[in-house]
Amino acid sequence: MSARDVATLIESDPEAMRILRAAAVLGLPDWWIGAGFVRNRVWDTISDLPVLPHRDVDVAYYDARRPDPDEDARAEARAAAVMPGVPWEIRNQARMHLRNRTEPYTSALDAISRWPETATCVAVTLRGDSVELVTCHGLADLVGMVVRPSPAFDHAAGRAVVRRRMENKGWLSRWPGLRLEI
What we know:
By secondary structure, the chain is an alpha/beta fold. It has one domain: 2-Layer Sandwich (Beta Polymerase, domain 2). The chain is 44% helix and 16% strand. It contains nine helices and seven strands; from the N terminus they run ααβαβαβααββαβααβ. The chain is globular and about 40 Å long.
């Protein structure tokens, strides 16, 4: 599966495209929808499983001029008005370094590249009506169904976080073909 195949997978999913169009209407700068929005669809497709409803839709954006968390709440309210029933989670990455106790991020993609697993460090946005995909650490782990810590989590405490996330989210129950490289 190539990057174009993954983008086409998202483009061929009417629900995913409605969510992407709803996010685009918000007018957030440097916005991307990542994590399970992409990862789960790819793993479901590879595993020949039906796509489940989203547990959350992670919208990462970057706006250094408006780091107030209330801006995120307002964006979530606008998103819910545009597309109710979607579990929106919208976060300005310009301030998330404080929560994550790291140096400031320079963009939404910089922040996404530091999410826990390499297969989770993926995101999509719309360019016109086309899906643009970014894989911060390459495509191999995503399409190979490999769970591996991202460079930011490749230490003892980070690997423990990855294990906990995998257990709490029930990944091995859903996708028994996952390979763990923790």
